Every structure is written in structure tokens, then in C-alpha cells.
Amino acid sequence: MDNQSSHDSMMSHMTGKETRPTSSTTGRTAPRAKAPAAAETTASHGSPATATRAWTTRLVVIGIVLSAVNLRPAITSLGALLEDVRDGLGMSGSAAGLLTSVPPLCFAVFGVTAPRLARRFGPAAVVCAAMAAVTAGLLIRPYAGSTAGFLAGSALALMGIAVSNVLMPVIVKRWFPDRVGSMTGLYSMALAVGTSVAAAVTVPVTDALGGGWQSGLAVWAGLAAAAVLPWVPLVRDRGPAPTAGARAGARARAERQPPALRITRSRTAWALAVFFGLQATAAYITMGWMAQIFRDAGVSASTAGLLLAVTMVMGVPLAFVIPRVATRLPRQGPIVIALGVCGLAGYAGLYLAPAAGAWAWAVLLGISTCAFPLALTMVGMRARTAAGVVQLSAFAQSTGYLISIPGPLLVGVLYQHSGGWGLPIALMIGLMIPQMAVGVLAGRDRTVEDEAAATA
User: Fold this and answer.
1) For residue range 5-22, what is the model confidence (pLDDT) as tens digits?
2) Left, alpha or beta for 211 (phi > 0: left; psi -120 to 50: alpha)?
3) Would you say 385 and 119 are in contact if contact means Cβ atoms under 8 Å apart?
4) Would the pLDDT of 369 be above 60?
5) Within 13 Å, how many C-alpha atoms sit on residue 64's CB side?
6) What's 233's DSSP letter?
7) How far apart are the first and last CA of the chain?
8) Which CATH architecture best describes the domain 55-240?
């Protein structure tokens, strides 16, 4: 088989339909028209319209992957150079603390604007503009010359990331309704790769570019600019072209659909929002403090950094596997429990023997942080319609990121006042219990549309 045939085969596999059992009560996938759809597909096989749709789908896949890779380097690259940035800008400790709290705050504040923007301009156009904002923010902040300018540039980049965070599940639901698990896994894996690579290579890249922290941060704007390109041809596209059977089904569903979804009336939406917030809290605590826990236990600085990298890298393969498994289960509670148990074991190890079992605790906590791709997968599964996914994604992520803001700050306060890690780790363990409880509730086989309608 030649290279072109291999490429076409690979892309066909990526964009083909994923078959999985679905429940009639959730309506996670739209019912398929049997004979008419098959006849239409056969008739149009090889037509220019079919080729155009196939090429467009490939562009969407590339856009999803490149966008996901850019959803965290703005944060993790800064963490690697934060001390240099503080020295270069004369940034106070309080300003640096504010800078570390900006990401979840921006995610919460700007994420709620995504549904309105998507309705007006289309998800693809909004993500294109969001990636352009990330590019501009990453270019502006290193050369702003002041703390205020640096914060403004960071906020611009984080605004684009916040909107893209919300719309990624929406685009997956719209373009790949039968492959929610595999496509969520693909972009979750890409997100994990971007997160870990930016943390690992920012310092070496900075040294290779002459040692200036400005160039070390600005270089990531090039990667963000690459993520703009696949979306440009899709700016006017509002979604895949429906078949005649799908159009008839859409009209019928529209007639049955209530005029507006009151997302706050859904218990599942609230459970998913709290689950998202608690897993984000655990992730930010782990990324922000785990290396310091190991260093205080006598582990060298280089080894502590490597342990943190191991924790982050664990999310790369698991972020692809867990969503695929989740979509094949009617309830995701067992996965929530398994991840939570790994987290509890990792925290217990940090409390009892942080240095002796350091590698095991790093692996266990890395597994636990894969609650993030699971939460994204459940966003796509707990809503029946694309409009429902938009609202649920915005509500769960914005509310969740608000919930996550105090956690890392509280860990620092407890550590400072107690002089050790006993109380902070006890807090982490205490937060894992409700995370597991609400995760089980969010994983029940139901949709927010049904719950909102039942309480209307």
C-alpha cells in the first residue's frame, strides 16, 4: 500500500463512525434513517459533495487536535519561567499569586460567553477567533514591559482558551455524534500532550534561544497560530450537511423541543458542575504543590520535577482510553470510583511515606487526574441535543472553575500556618470524597433536557 493510500485509510478510520450500545432513555445519538439514508449514501458515493464533506471532516479533526494542544501551554510554560518573569518585571509576591489564580477565574468568567457567541457566529468561527486571541495574547504579554500589561496579555490568551474549552465538546457532539468517546479521547490526549510538553521543554527552548524569558514564552504563539489555520475554511460552516432523513428528524425534534433549556433545573447539570470543579481543584493542587511536597520530604529538585512530569504524562494514554470506555457504559459511576480510589491512595501515600513511595504516588495521582477527560465525555453524554451540550458545557465548566479557585490558595494557607503538609493533604483527601459522590450522580443514565422539562 502506498503512502497516500495509507493516509486515506488512516483518516477514514479516524473520521468513520464508532458503534457502541446506546440507551433509548438518554438519546445520546440521533436515530438513524435506515433505508433512505443508505440509499442516499450509495447514490452520492464519489460525488463532489461527498468528497467536500470528507475533506471538511478531516479539517475539523485537525482543528480539534491543534486547538486542544494549545489549551494549556499558556499556563504551564509560564509556570516553568515564573521566577524569571517575576524578576524581569519586578513583580510582587501578591501579583504573582494573582497570576496563578487568573486561569480558573478567566475560564469561569469568559466561558459563559461561549454559548451566545456560538449561536450567533457558529462554533467553528468562534474557535477560530479564540485561537487568534490566544496567539495575540502570547505575543503581547512577554513584551508588554509591565505587570499590568503582562496580566492583560495573559487574560487575552486565557479568554480564547476559556471559550475553546467550552466549545470543544460542542464541536465533537455536532460533527461526530456517534464517536463522542473516541473524539473526546483524541482531544483530551492532545490537551495532555500540550500540557506536559510545554512544562518540559520551555526552559530548554528558552536556553536555546539565548536565555531570555520573553522569547521562551513568545515561542508558543507560533503553535497557537498554527491552530487558527484549519478553522479558517470552516468560518462560515455551521455544521455537517444533513441528509434528507436527518433534516426530517431535526424538524420533528424541533417541534417537540421546548423553547429554552433551563439548565439550572437539572440535578445532573449541578452534579456535573460540582464534579468538574472538584476534579479541577485536585488538578490545580497537584500541579501547583506536588513537587514542593516531594522536595520538603527530601527529594531533590530535579527528581521532584520529574515526578510531576510523570503525573502529567499519565494523562496522555488514559485520556484517550477512558472516554472510549465511558461511552460504552450506561453509567460512568464505576470509572469515577476507580479514579477516586487511585487519588485517595496517592494522597495517603504522600501523607505516610512521601519519599519512599514517590514514584507510585506520582503514578496514582496521574491516574486520578484523568477525571478531567471523563468529565468532558459526560458533558457530551448528558445532553441529547447540540444546543443542550453548549449550555451544559458552559454551565459545568464555568461553575466548576469558580469552585476550583479557592483550593490551591487554601492549601498554601494551611501549609504556611501549620508548617507541614499534614493538613493540606487531609484537605485533599476530604475533597476527594464528595468528588466521587457527585461524579456518581453525574454519571447516571439521563439527560439534562429531560430533567429540565420534568421540573418545568
Assistant:
1) 444 444 444 444 444 443
2) left
3) no
4) yes
5) 28
6) G
7) 58
8) Up-down Bundle (1.20)
